[in-house]
Amino acid sequence: MTVCSLTNQFDATVSQLEQLADEVYRVRLECPPLAQAILPGQFLMLRMPQRNDPLLGRPFALYDTVGDPKQPTALDIGFHVVGKMTSLMETLQPGEQLEVWGPLGNGFPELETTHLLQVAGGIGYTPFVAVSREALLQKTYGTPARSGIRAERGTLIYGVKSARFAARMDDLADLSGKLDIEVCTEDGSTGYEGLVTGPLRRRLAERGNEPTTVLTCGPLVMMRVVAEICREFGVPCLVSLETPMACGFGACFSCVVPVVTGPDEWDYQRSCMEGPIFEAERIHWEQMMGKK
Ligand SMILES: Cc1cc2nc3c(=O)[nH]c(=O)nc-3n(C[C@H](O)[C@H](O)[C@H](O)COP(=O)(O)OP(=O)(O)OC[C@H]3O[C@@H](n4cnc5c(N)ncnc54)[C@H](O)[C@@H]3O)c2cc1C
Ligand code: FES
Questions:
Q1: Which residue owns the Cα nearest ligand 1 atom 11?
Q2: Burial class (CB in 10 A: 0-12, 13-18, 19+), 173
Q3: Which domains does the chain have, with CATH numbers?
């Protein structure tokens, strides 16, 4: 276990802000060194310079890199307006400078499967843009480029409360024919009416012998149920946790989560260093939910 790693801090310049749905935005940050190093499932911490409120940085997952994949110059993050930092981000203008540090966290491991089934709740869909491009289009990430995730086909089951919160999916147009996107809304205003777990069960029941791997990101209660369903169907599942974080690089222990370390044993691990991606089976869900 690395005790604490000092990470790279950069000034990033905002070059674009696009609204994708009610309260959901994508912001483009010009920052070549970070864009060239970050991997799908990793994240960065973001702070507003010259502001003490909010004092702490906030974590945001890589949405995707921008430019020549071998030498990207920018990266996108997607965000949902929920509090102080994201309310300020909603008003960002091209040319504004932000403090960022990263890349952080372990990212999704390299893996091969036939069907990559991604289950997202709300803003938890953002890591799956880069993941899908890596797995289905062989887009490369990192310097030197890693071999990455490989799959023959992909599904994104994307749940939101209502249609107005469903992010536009035109960013994923280049994946058409390879990525099947199923939107679920709790109020039935578009797509499947109900929770993501309905389509997940259906697709796992229909999979036959097709090797399938599930990745999930979103609210904790959703990920717990996704993990239970995967266990029931005997399908491997990786979770991307969105545990609140203060430093992002291993120093403060604000982000610890209970992880199974052996038969009847568990211990806390830092989501920012040992995670945020964990095998679902390794999370001690009872302890985790009790803590929240
Ligand atoms: C690894 C990682 C990747 C993330 N990626 C993204 C991303 O790509 N896009 C995105 O929009 N958000 C992402 N998040 C969550 C984001 O960092 C928080 O929502 C952040 O706190 C927002 O800052 P804020 O100042 O606007 O809200 P705050 O003022 O910090 O919080 C507003 C409200 O949200 C609650 N809250 C804050 N953080 C969390 C959390 N992690 N889980 C549940 N409730 C929380 C607070 O208790 C408070 O009630 C990620 C978190 C992690 C750990
Ligand atoms: S956020 Fe500080 S140790 Fe993880």
A1: 79
A2: exposed
A3: 9-103 (2.40.30.10), 115-291 (3.40.50.80)
Ligand 1: which of 101, 128, 238, 242 to mutate, most ligand atoms within 8 Å of CB? 242
pLDDT in tens, the chain (292 residues): 555 555 699 999 999 999 999 999 999 999 999 999 999 999 999 999 988 999 999 999 999 999 999 999 999 999 999 999 999 999 999 999 999 999 999 999 999 999 999 999 999 999 999 999 999 999 999 999 999 999 999 999 999 999 999 999 999 999 999 999 999 999 999 999 999 999 999 999 999 999 999 999 999 999 999 999 999 999 999 999 999 999 999 999 999 999 999 999 999 999 999 999 999 999 999 999 985 4
CA of 15 to the centre of ligand 2 (A): 29
Q: Please state the atom number of ligand 2 nearest to the C-alpha of residue 271.
A: 4
CA 106/CA 45 separation, integer angstroms: 14
Buried b (16+ CB within 10 A) or exposed e, 31-40: beebbbbbbb
pTM above 0.90, yes or no: yes
Taking the centre of ligand 1 as the mean of its atom positions, its distance from the CA of residue 89, in whole angstroms, is 13
Q: Are residues 201 and 212 in contact, defined by beta-carbon separation less than 8 angstroms?
A: no
